[in-house]
Amino acid sequence: MSQGSHALVVGEPAPDLTLPDTHGTPVSLAGLRGGPVVLVFVPFAFSGTCTGELCELRDNIADFQEAGVHLAVISCDPMFSLRAWAEKEGYAFDLLSDFWPHGEVARAYGVFDEASGHALRGSFLIDAEGVLRWSVVNPRGEARPLAAYREALASL
């Protein structure tokens, strides 16, 4: 498995990004400045582990809202797949498509799996000034626990 060579360092600026949401509207990290952001990279729309993780985030979105945190999920799936997934599961947070150039943002965050063409399970908390404050990357098939997000949010 070949991950991106960009090892992100807590305390350093996070790479900027601009990706389309489920309706094709560009969302940029720079445009979200002024408030903290959690980026959640997932391998595949509609897969069991990813759906379980995002449903848990959906069901606990108040944790993020109360902390003033913008939640954005990033996948290498096409925009239309992400829209169908969001509609089926009732996700009210941003799902952003890193489909083309394929995996470019996942590479910038060091979570693109070149061998299989998808993002690894990486999560990143970026503060209001665009500085990386926390990150976790889990192995294939291993969901990120909600407790890890809660701990990161408490550190803000």
From TrEMBL:
<feature type="domain" description="Thioredoxin">
    <location>
        <begin position="8"/>
        <end position="156"/>
    </location>
</feature>
<keyword id="KW-0676">Redox-active center</keyword>
<dbReference type="Pfam" id="PF00578">
    <property type="entry name" value="AhpC-TSA"/>
</dbReference>
<dbReference type="InterPro" id="IPR013766">
    <property type="entry name" value="Thioredoxin_domain"/>
</dbReference>
<dbReference type="InterPro" id="IPR000866">
    <property type="entry name" value="AhpC/TSA"/>
</dbReference>
<dbReference type="InterPro" id="IPR024706">
    <property type="entry name" value="Peroxiredoxin_AhpC-typ"/>
</dbReference>
<keyword id="KW-0560">Oxidoreductase</keyword>
<keyword id="KW-0049">Antioxidant</keyword>
<dbReference type="InterPro" id="IPR050455">
    <property type="entry name" value="Tpx_Peroxidase_subfamily"/>
</dbReference>
<protein>
    <submittedName>
        <fullName>Peroxiredoxin</fullName>
    </submittedName>
</protein>
<dbReference type="InterPro" id="IPR036249">
    <property type="entry name" value="Thioredoxin-like_sf"/>
</dbReference>
<keyword id="KW-0575">Peroxidase</keyword>
